[in-house]
Amino acid sequence: MRVGLAQFNPVVGDIAGNSRRIRELYASADAAGCDIVVFPELSITGYPPEDLVLKSGFVAENQQSMRDIVAATQGCVAVFGFVDGSKGALANSAAIASNGTLHGTYNKQLLPNYSVFDEDRYFTPGTSFSLFTIAGVNVGVTICEDIWQADGPVQQQAKAGATLNININASPYHRGKFDERQQMVSERARANSCAIVYVNQVCGQDELVFDGGSMVFDHRGDMLMRAEQFGESLSFIDIEVNESQVVNGIPVVEVSQSSRADGSKHEGVITPSTSDMEQVFGALVLGTRDYVRKNGFTDVVIGLSGGIDSALVAAIAVEALGSQHVHGVSMPSRYSSEGSRTDAAMLASNLGVEMQTISIEPAFSAYLDMTAESFAGKAADLTEENLQSRVRGTTLMALSNKFGWMVLTTGNKSELAVGYFTLYGDSVGGYAVIKDLLKTTVYELCRFVNLRAGREVIPEAVITKPPSAELRPDQRDDQSLPAYEVLDPILELYVEQDRTAAEIIALGFDEALVRRISRLVDMNEYKRRQGPPGVRVSLKAFGKDRRLPITNAYRG
Fold first, then answer.
1. Where is 156: in which H helix or E strand?
2. Which residues contact 311 (CB under 8 A, 6 or more apart)?
């Protein structure tokens, strides 16, 4: 049986564009003699469509597109995702079609309602299934979460006689997910003596990144094919499938009896495994590229301070968009060191990006003069530090308005967690590229960028100098915060693992430090809630999958 895996990049809400892409990929698979070509979950609407599915016109348009795709099918069987509202309640559904005929649909049975998922809000779970005889093989169809439960729909369909299971997905990336997903699919194939074709979408959608990595396993759980991560592909593979035994009472739809494959042989290509840092970098690049471009921007602007965070954001932006579309701005003040200025200039040169210098000193001095009477008798403090940050934010937004550039913010997860940023200052912008990277990971990824390039893209001085906001004389981050090597493990436990302060203290961490850090995290929820979205790479990021009340008296 020849199978095509159409791992493509949809745009949420672009029903016409997604459907056109499905038809184009289908035509290529049909011309290649495929018996089946498989597309991702909700491929017509893009995933996740969220409250768009509450609009009846949106659902109706997606259903009409489903019918149009069905009408365009030829001998190759297409399996693709859409929202089915034909029976009143909405279903996350897969269509199975060929030769202009809709042979059947399958409604997703297990609806995830955790982490970034809230499908219970929109869909009604399916309760039944049919098998489809394609090229003489009994084929079952499942959708994403259905495969994660060992005794779920894949097992039920295998017991009913399916020796091939088609699983269509919109499975988002986080660190460690790729290996976990691969092991799970292998186990499911082996346990059910059933070959599995697993197709995942590949795209950035707001905070989420879907990493592709579509794969095929035989009935022994051995991998036959694996597509690349973070890139589109249309892959073909010829697989041998065991003969089917059908259990009475399960509907079986005969689609085609003989294989369409010609005498040629499509061997499965297994793309090489990639390291954790390669995957994180790939996710950040894809998420940034898609967010910028899908929202109608071509260029971005970044405040280049000479620090490590802005350096990493600039490197990611260049990889995502090309150096000609990235604009750097140095905005020195009276407290900016000469080293930071030269580091920023060297970074811009290494990346090949335009950099201009706009001193904030005139505006900062004007603010000090404006407020001198109001602040009379008050010592300089955080107020004056924040004024500088807000002048910089205003400057970047002015450039954005004038030239149509999206501002990329440069705050990392450690800073956002404890509120070590200025609201309406360095937090302003359209997209927060590294908002889900702890500071220690920022350093790790900067070293990876240089290793990957085989040269010093990010100057070594940027990586080795003590981090500083440079908003007062001789300022360093460790004057306000614990060293990041101490801070980040506590944040990982408190934010990503949802441990209470008491539980973290019981693990041996200093009580006073844990109480202080947890309090900072809690009291700065209101600031984070006003920030831009950014790429999710951890198991729990600030935003879509961490939903805590702003007004919150619980201290643990």
1. helix 153-159
2. 304, 343, 347, 446, 458, 459, 462
Q: Give the residue numbers spanning the domain of 79.
A: 2-272
Claim to verify: residue 109 and residue 244 sit in the same structural domain: yes
Q: What is the 3-state secondary structure (H, E, C) of 62-89?
A: HHHHHHHHHHHCCCCEEEEEEEEEEECE
Q: How far is it, in rounded angstroms, from Cα 416 to Cα 7?
A: 34
Report, in this order, helix, strand and coil percent for the chain, each rounded to 5: 40, 20, 40
Given 34, 41, 294, 439, which residue is catalytic? Answer: 41
- The residue from 34, 76, 119, 144 that is catalytic is 144
CA-based torsion, 23, 26, 31, 35: positive or negative: negative
Q: Which of 111, 107, 118 is nearest to 83 (CA)?
A: 107
Q: What Rg, from alpha-carbon coordinates, does the chain have?
A: 26
Tell me the pLDDT of the chain (556 aa) as tens digits.
999 999 999 999 999 999 999 999 999 999 999 999 999 999 999 999 999 999 999 999 999 999 999 999 999 999 999 999 988 899 999 999 999 999 999 999 999 998 999 999 999 999 999 999 999 899 999 999 999 999 999 999 999 999 999 999 999 999 999 999 999 999 999 999 999 999 999 999 999 999 999 999 999 999 999 999 999 999 999 998 876 666 678 888 989 877 877 778 888 899 999 999 999 999 999 999 999 999 999 999 999 998 999 999 999 999 999 999 999 999 998 877 887 789 999 999 999 999 999 999 999 999 999 999 999 999 999 899 899 999 999 999 999 999 999 999 999 999 999 999 999 999 999 999 999 999 999 999 999 999 999 999 999 999 998 877 767 777 777 788 899 999 999 999 999 999 999 999 999 999 999 999 999 999 999 999 999 999 999 999 999 888 888 988 888 8
Quote the CA–CA distance of 523 and 526 in Å, as a whole number: 7
Pairing of strands 252-256, 36-38: unpaired
Are 407 and 428 within 8 A, CB to CB? yes
Nearest to 312 by CA among 286, 281, 340, 342: 281
Give how far Cα 102 sits from Cα of 26, 36, 83, 99, 106, Å.
15, 14, 15, 9, 12
Selecting among 34, 108, 228, 446, the annotated active-site residue is: 108
Domain boundary residue, one of 219, 244, 272: 272
Does 520 reside within a domain? no
From the number of C-beta atoms within 10 Å of its C-beta (0-12, 13-18, 19+), residue 258 rates as exposed
Number of domains in the chain: 2
108 is catalytic: yes
292, 265 contact by CB (below 8 A):
no
Same domain? For 288 and 235 the reply is: no
Q: Does the annotation mark 41 as catalytic? A: yes
